[in-house]
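Model the whole thing, not chain by chain.
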Amino acid sequence: MHRKIITIILVLFSGYVSAHSWTPTYPKFLPSYMDKVVETEMTLFNKRQDVEYYRIDVLDENMNPVIFASANKIYKVGYLQKIKILIFLREESLIDAVYICSKSMFIKSYTSLNRVSSRICSKIR
Amino acid sequence: MFRNILVGAVALLTASVYAENVPIYGTVEGNCIVVPDTTGVYGVPASDTLSTAVADGGVLPVVRYDVIIADYYKAVITTPTAFSESPPLNDVVNWTGSAAVHEVSDAGMSAYDTGKVEYNSTTEFDLTIAGSTWFEMDSKAEYGYDKPFPGGNYTAMVEANCIAK
């Protein structure tokens, strides 16, 4: 059992070289300072050296976009930088909104190899 | 004398404060980490074909998924259906691709391959076990009808999604 845990921990730490994490898994919206608008805070941690930009989306269950507000839609996040992102939604949009996703974005001129674009989606509960 | 008693009383009171139990709180949250492990390379087995298959001289891209809590996420991997960078192409490119389990940190994860769901160019894996799973993707592009690909650089993107259930 200990061996298994150590293996998982080692693997997770080795992933710090190049990875992307988006938490919490199940965000909860709370009332904001604006009437009929709710907010939640997400955390984006960029451990990918090859990525500097991430796009934020709020999606319904069919992965169609839902209107939301945030300081930006595309965030510049340096390597090993962790940022907190506030997402605002109209109360009525909570019925449709299911996922909050962050997706890695590449600068076109830098894409000289066959790369992997990563997207992580949290589910609204 | 009175001064000594006062100092002793203060010291005892202070000690009672330090004797309080100090709780340690911890929360284990579900988390999915997507780690691009190996960059894919297209081999050119024929002038009209680009393929990441090892037999075709290519390198299969590999992505690692780390999940801390079991059964919180599914891996949704989409193989390319277009080039993100290429010389001008004036004919159709036919794409095929697939994803499969490459390595696992828990023997039970090998069953992900049998339970995977495939549609269009997308493969879904239910991440029912905590730990790390490496997935490899195969991608093949065939140009027109036996037409040679024009010379130049070709780039395509694999999309590795981790979707909360």
